[in-house]
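Hi, here's the filled form for the chain we discussed.

Project: internal
Contact: R.S.
Residues: 107
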Amino acid sequence: MYRVVNDFKKGYKLRNNIVTDEKGDLVTDSHDILARWRKHFSQLLNVQRVNHIAEPLVPEPNAFEIEIAIEKLKRHKSPSTNQVPAELVKAGCRIIGFEIHKLIILF
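And the returned structure, exactly as it came back:
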């Protein structure tokens, strides 16, 4: 709002469209300016990405570690967002632990 009022008070002034090319020379023609912006954003956005295979920061847990974690679950607590109570998981410790281990290895 301030800019509009300020421009209105001072009157209309033509803004200079000046851009520099790769060499640092000034470009003033509107077609050359558009071509320069097109080239600039093409170089900026069309970067060849190198896919790096990242190693996991934490090694996958083994089945024994999952069983220990299940045994440490506290009973009589509210279930989390998956609505599975800890008592149910603890009741099938080995079977559920094995299935959880398979899920972790798959993903």
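Let me know if anything looks off before we file it.
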